Amino acid sequence: CGAQEAEEQFFSMDTVMSIHAYGSGAAEAAAAARREVEALDSQLSRTKADSLISQLNAHAGDGTDVALDTDTARLLAFSKSISQLLPGDFDITIAPVMDAWGFTGEDRHVPDSETLSAAMALVGSEGLSVDEAAGTARLERAGMAVDLGAVAKGYAAAKAEEALREAGITSALLDLGRNITAIGPKTDGTAWRVGVADPENDSQYLCILSLEDQTASTSGGYERYFEENGVRYHHIIDPETGYPADSGLKSVTVISADHLLADALSTALFVAGPEEALEFWRSRDDFELVLCTGENQLLVTEGLEAGFTFTGEELGYDC
Ligand code: ADP
Ligand code: MG
Ligand code: MG
Description:
alpha+beta, T-fold, 8-stranded antiparallel beta sheet, 3-stranded antiparallel beta sheet, 8 helices, 28% strand, binds adenosine-5'-diphosphate, binds magnesium ion
């Protein structure tokens, strides 16, 4: 009876995902973890009319404290706290601006200035009130809306890990769409080896990381974008301008034992840019960074040196 192994591949949260679990009961565990992710998608999506987040958005400005559940309320409160830590970089009330650019549906386009300023006037986390104990939230002004695209996959990774561990799994690898989560080490006791994609060609790697009980979450302008009149517009918005962030970075990878923090910070620090990202890193001890700059320079924080392999030289990168 050799080691058991199971894989679930599926489409959720608008991206292709996979869950590999190892050990006894792997198949049931991977299926349970997948169900957890799919359930969260139904709760957190704002394009599903009956989701909790759609209910919150539908009541914007009417004074209703919308009943969520304690987990969702905690996720909203966490997201607000990231806005306070990195003001001007991160805001889940960016939804009206995402809509103005057509990123929510298929019709992507540069918005006219009136549409964009009307959308921008609705952005601001101070207009989102959350009562974690009661499990409720309220959007203060009509037209406001929440978009959890920046944190949903990291949160899903945390929930999937819970499901796997409850089923007795201590070794697994999750790929929830540029959020790679390593549970435990591999079954042979060594760390997982995970590549950070080249922003110019995601079948090639800038570097390889060693991960164990950690997530590596990557955000970049190359993930979702459209072109208009020869200009590329991507889906991570600078909340101060309403335009796609242009901070001198091609991608940001955050490595952390906190899966949700990794996802939130990869988005926020992509907007922040290299100087502010490194300054923020210096102020904390719960994550590491791989920054890929517009000049094809890889900036790697000290905590990653062990198990880090640079593979971007032939691709034209410096490290
Ligand atoms: P991915 O699309 O791979 O999940 P991110 O985790 O970086 O990449 O999340 C990007 C998503 O976050 C966007 O599609 C949008 O839903 C939302 N978003 C865009 N800009 C911001 C921002 N400045 N703050 C918070 N959320 C944002
Ligand atoms: Mg993110
Ligand atoms: Mg993400």
